[in-house]
Amino acid sequence: MTQRIEFTLNGKKLTVDINIKESLLEVLRDRLHMTSVKQGCGVGECGACAVLIDGVSMNSCIYPGPRAHGKEIRTTEGLADGEDLSVMQRSFIEAGAVQCGFCTPGLLMTATELKESGKSYSREEIRREISGHLCRCTGYHKIVDAVEKGLKE
Amino acid sequence: MYDISSYLNAGSTDEALELLQNRPEARIIAGGTDILIRLREGKHRGAALVDISGIEDLSRVWLDADNTLHIGPLQSFRALERNELIKDLLPGLAAAASVVGGPQVRAAATIGGNICNGATSADSASTLFCANAELVLTSPGGERIVEIADFYKGPGKVDLKAGELLTDIIVQEKDYRGFTGHYMKFSQREAMDIATLGCAVMVRTSEEILEEVRIAYGVAGPTPRRCPEAEMALKGTPLNRENLDLFAELVKKELLTRDSWRGSKEYRDHLAGVLARRGLAKLTGQGDCDHDTEN
């Protein structure tokens, strides 16, 4: 069954015809080719599919596509301004927080939410805030370094 | 792709009730963090989903003229853990909300969904048991109010009839005024895990006397459970080390935990005592009472 939904993706208003059975992850990846959004576990455990929905990091794999109607959605594709990377993107590179890269876009969206909150976070609080993301490469230290560094800039 | 036959949005409680009434095969979706996973597992094939997440009336937290606390079932755990009224009046519930899943799950998952799924591991349930919460269930025929302890019928089974919607969670003033509360989730990981044992404690003291102690456990049995005998034994007794020890012992005897792959009965019994003492000690400023739990 098809349904027409309207939402904002990375600042652009879109009208999309979706199948009501699709998750937001499927709408973003398969229809709109936002391939930064990764499917890891598919059940909301790993955070690889996290995107910002009205400014809040959420798992797009357990988010019904039709629910995106009227929402403001942001993915990693929308973080850089042309060639200029966002503070958190630069910070992840400089801290060496990326190995295989599969978890990175999701983590970047959560890190972006923290940055935009304007609050300060201790390392312990950063660990808690990123606890919904699994990374099998880095051991998390460099990710925490990156978020900490990005928050200070 | 979720294996569903339709996806309908309810903009108001009345609209939701109407949609549910005409579709006996309908399933309610709030945050979706449980039902969408069950759909992925191949359950509820072809379900007609009725999305209630947009009903603003059902996501408020407020006090009425009688100081009765109303918790809208659509409050997300993210909102609950930050809600000033909840932090002030039911700090145990704020603590429970803050340890559900991880941040992304808390942004979606709702307290009403947590309760209506009927899982013994629901982090919010044990505090609601301590607070004698009442649930308002609305159907086209009107409302009925059920105490939370009666609402839980068994694993995954609750007293929610077809066509009914949970529209309010109520806590009377006598059940929060003067109490402090805490929730302890004992799990193998600090995030994204289900409790091996969850323990909510509420206590009201006056001048070193334990006026009232309440304790409820999740995952100890098929539904969350209070320990009325242990609670009664402590009522009116002085706040001291011996009574904390006594409480831990009584709770272990009364609770009747069970084996499951997350932990053996022996392990859970031991944990039950440790958490009872730890929770009560924390709330009454008794400091570290964790040592010598082996006696």
Summarize the structure.
The complex is a heterodimer of chains A (153) and B (295). Chain A is built from five helices and five strands; from the N terminus they run E-E-H-E-E-E-H-H-H-H. In chain A, 32% of the residues lie in helices and 18% in strands.
Describe this structure in words.
- The complex is a heterodimer of chains A (153) and B (295).
- Chain A folds into two domains: 2-78, Ubiquitin-like (UB roll) (Roll); 87-152, DNA polymerase, domain 1.
- Helices cover 32% and strands 18% of the residues of chain A.
- Chain A has helices spanning 24-31, 87-94, 104-117, 123-129, 141-152, and strands at 2-9, 12-19, 50-53, 56-59, 72-74.
- In chain A, strands 2-1-5-3-4 form a five-stranded mixed sheet, with helices on both faces.
- In chain A, β3 (50-53) and β4 (56-59) form a beta hairpin.
- In chain A, α2 crosses α5 and α3 runs parallel beside α5 (141-152).
- Chain B is of the alpha+beta class and 295 residues long.
- Chain B is built from twelve helices and 15 strands.
- A five-stranded antiparallel sheet of chain B has the order 4-5-10-6-7. In chain B, strands 11, 12, 13, 14 and 15 form a five-stranded antiparallel sheet that branches.
- In chain B, α5 packs antiparallel against α8 (123-130).
- Mean pLDDT of chain B is 94; it is low at 291-295.
- At the A-B interface, β4 of A face β1, α2 and α6 of B.
